[in-house]
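Q: I'm teaching a short session on how sequence maps to structure, and I want students to see two examples side by side rather than one. Could you give me a first protein with its sequence written out and its structure tokens following it? Keep the formatting plain so it prints cleanly on a handout.
A: Of course. Example one:
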Amino acid sequence: MTTPTHEPVTFGERPLRIEDVLTLANRQAPVQLQSDAAYREHIAKGARFLDSLLDKEGVIYGVTTGYGDSCVVAVPLHHVEALPRHLYTFHGCGLGKLLDAQATRAVLAARLQSLCHGVSGVRIELLERLHAFLEHDILPLIPEEGSVGASGDLTPLSYVAATLSGEREVTYRGERRQSADVHRELGWTPLVLRPKEALALMNGTAVMTGLACLAYARADYLLQLATRITALNVVALQGNPEHFDERLFAAKPHPGQMQVAAWLRKDLAIDAPTAPLHRLQDRYSLRCAPHVLGVLADSLNWLRSFIETELNSANDNPIIDAEAERVLHGGHFYGGHIAFAMDSLKNLVANVADLLDRQLALLVDERYNHGLPSNLSGAPADRAMINHGFKAVQIGTSAWTAEALKNTMPASVFSRSTECHNQDKVSMGTIAARDAIRVLELTEQVAAATLLAANQGVWLRGRAEDARALPPSLAAMHEELAKDFPPVIEDRALEGELRLCLQRIAEQHWRLHA
């Protein structure tokens, strides 16, 4: 296990934040389950209430009836115990790539947090086993495709239900194993899921919500990184710092926009212009950077609200109110808020890709880069004609940006009536979350390329006779980048360095503005 660097994350009555899910996904914190007697009794009461209804032969969706459109089909009591296994078995049809370890941990955390509300009718033993999976890093192999995001993430979450029951495959200690073998090795008895427990595990929004937590954290860091890259490009392109004047932004006071402008002023160490201006107004990709990045900055708060409300909700069906002895049939599995949040996020992030792509296009073009060499090549004059510097990197960046922009089509408007028209309006939230992750991947590639190019531009500018000292934060960043990314003088293949830069971004290696 990765050495914990954070306080334990406790599942129970306390709400979780996105950051809690992130620390668990990265194996940076121990995991705990609330264990006081009052809480355990609160959980047990729901399961007992369900048992009492079975004794009275009460009609409960998914417990004494079939699933979905089959809710009108009564299940005799002697078949009720077999129903949960049938549910996760026939949903074992996921396809596509497997969720990675980080995403799988986030999914387990999101599902456990929802069930901890005590209104899902599950036993404390189920919560303990989910907790143990997180604690021991036993990760179900979950195909990422097959969910329409209402009736929850049924197909992907069936892999959680099945592996808790000792079926299908998991990764454990870095190896792909049969779940039954891991249970046997640890001395555990696989769970036999009680009535409602498979439904409680599967009929919810844990996959889209777990992915949304990861997407949010990546976007938050990307915002800061894009601001730092912009500052480097202002230096490399000898931009006009007056574009970020505090008085200017007081006239249009969107808080996030003002924050980005403040970060730029800090990075550039300016309270007023200190260098001769080369032009009155820079092109929009520099001048309007706070306005582009500010939309993302201003949106993060409401995105957090949508994601954390979903994370800290009971989002299965039916809801079991043991106190009032009622079974409430509804549609809390519907992932509309996450779908909208992720459709919005991918739009916001793709605009960051487009901004940085335009900055890179200025950097490599002699017509617009104000004296830098063509394609940012550092080759001496006698070899300049055979060296092409960042030419291909700019082409690649254009491709990644185009793909990011293409993926901004909202998934939530592609609702499909399915399952015998029972699920006739669905959220597509999981597809939206997967799209958002893909747009983030592409935009991080754009950021990596533009960061290396900006750093090259700053190095080239520093060789000029009239070069000025870099502001402190940019000087520190330039020096740190130089350890891994030396200047491009003679052409070299940059794939390895781009991949290393992406790794640094994934690790949130550079301390930026937060």
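Q: Perfect. Now a second example for contrast.
A: Example two:
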Amino acid sequence: MVESETLSPPAAAPAPAPAARAPGSATRVAVVGAGFIATFHLEILAETPGVEVVAVCDPVLERAQAAAASHGVANAVSELPALAKLGVDVAHLLAPPDLHAKLTRELLELGIGVFVEKPLALESGEARALAALAAERELPLGVNHNAVHHPSFARLLRRVRAGQIGRVEHVQVTLSVPLRQLDAGDYSHWMFREPKNIVFEQGPHPFAQLVELVGGVQSMEAVRLGTRELNPWQVFHDRWLLAAVAERGTAELYFAFGQDFTRSTLQVLGTDGSLEADLFHDHLSGERKTLWLDFWNSFLAGWRRGGELRGSAWRVLFHYLKQTLGLGRREDAFFAGMRGSIQAFHAALHEGAPPPADGERGAMVLDWCEAAVATLPAPKPAEPLPKDPGPARTGEVCVTGANGFIGRHTVAKLLARGLPVTAIVRRRHSLPPVLTDGARDGSVRLVVASLDDPDSLADAVRGARVVLHLATGGGDDWETVKRGMVEGSQRLGEACLAERVERLVYVSSTAALYLGHDCGKDVVGDDVPTDPQPGDRPLYARGKIAAEAALLKMHREQGVPVTIVRPAVVVGPDAPMQHSGLGLWVRDNHCVGWGLGDTPCPLVLVDDVADALARLAAHAGRELDGKTLNLSSRVPLTAADVVAAYREKTGRDLHFHPRALWFSQAMEIGKWVVKKVGGRKDAAFPSYRDLKSRQLAPALACERARNVLGWKPVEERDKFLAELLP
């Protein structure tokens, strides 16, 4: 192990507190960044005394407008200077970490105080410079170290400061967590772009807690226990062991990212006792010295610890039931920590006191981050990708969503057929090897475009013979799904029409069909229409139904040469096993069946889907214009069989739980009743139709793919499992 040089943060004078606000005046707040975390800030700010949210700012104005409308905010803007004109006092900055320092500086220079999501910056020196600028301008600067306000940690900290365990000597931290992006193969997130980024993304939570317990870091030894290569030139260290000496004690941390089992604990060892916070379950227990003999002391230690854990368990259950029934506010650990952090900042601001997590606190947390990554070797620079894709070639095939699960397999199949490929992507970094290698050898043109931007789409498809549309859009509400999935597909159709593309292939899903046991058919053919009751289906299925309808209408009325492909349950060795087509995964190792799981599931290997799309791209006939094609194999495997095969291959404790549909529906109705009793006006009555459709009861005929394209998917059981689980 190599010890980093001693890190001692320079002494800094406390930042002057901002002037106390006039009695009765509200802090005018803006939220900058309308992504996922913005919802939490907006909900908490709405219940924070002395605060008025006046604007949402996001570089994509439509996103800002949607967030503002959802939360009753009057203004939506796309540029920071507009906030100054609106008289904003404080901005909650929720941008990606690599933009924190730049945007914080811009806001401070506009005369606007800032409350920044962690980390404050990516360098402790930059953080201290921002703190100095805020002090110079007499503006508040705070950091959202919400882990310090985690309920069980807050209770632990109070007991430590009350002297219950004597003087703190050592802290042990375990942070073992799953990462959704790793499971999905989405390596474009900021935390994967450089090996050190994962520490700056995940580390500030425990490091902020350590600052409270043992102060600033003085030295650290770091060992990286696990490393994987996500893509060429993209290294990810998934397990770390850190040992540190701090101002007021020592610390040991185990980080494990992308794990199957979650464990997040913090144990404080003192001269006269210990305390352990289970941050995942929100439990706290401890042990102290007593006057009794060892045998009785040991009994009391176990008895009292058990009592504390039982008390914590009842408290968590009580808060959940109270919130669900509308009898109390939300108290889950994450939300309570966020609320505590945000409201502590605004309470200090209103009283004219320094923020509890100010710029210097943020810099001390970054000292810990920098110590952890101090011995990392410099990342290997990636070979640059060609900046100019050049003109389209004869027979060009454009693929949207080319870096997705089906997309990257499809590009590989197209290249194997010798077809020139244009990969339409939203960004040029963190791309799979099939795209980067192809860009460097000239077989793949990389084009950045967005379904929101008609001009970029027209440029991307210009000169193409075929466009394969695999990109999709998600969202938590219908308007967002409609904009991304439906209107985006329409814009692509218009671009294909304008640029004289010979064939547009829209990759839909069998989720657009109604496949309940009462659909009236034992076998569903290619021409079956989409579900005539889309309102009874979830947003994804509803979006696919609407997108199909919009494109087929464009085919009839404008002549857009579209073919629609509907893959069934697509599986592959490089995809998460927790496919919703198998059942409801209530945990990543517990799958509740859409029924008893005793009928064959319409499975299809991702390589077979990609092969069908490549065959369609190469097909010269026009008989598939305006037609739909199902893609499914006839492999004799049930959902229960697949889960059992995963269990045997992986050695994991996987379980398939058959459940009658009527029982699942009864449970969903029970949840709905509780939500209604709790005052949830937006709670929709559970759709039994959707539940029945998820059973995937009828078999799927795929005659067009087989007869017209010569498609032959893997259907022999043992071979299918061998390819799925190599």
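Q: What should students look for in example two?
A: Point them to this: The two ends are 37 Å apart (CA to CA). Also worth mentioning: Confidence is low (pLDDT under 50) at residues 1-16.
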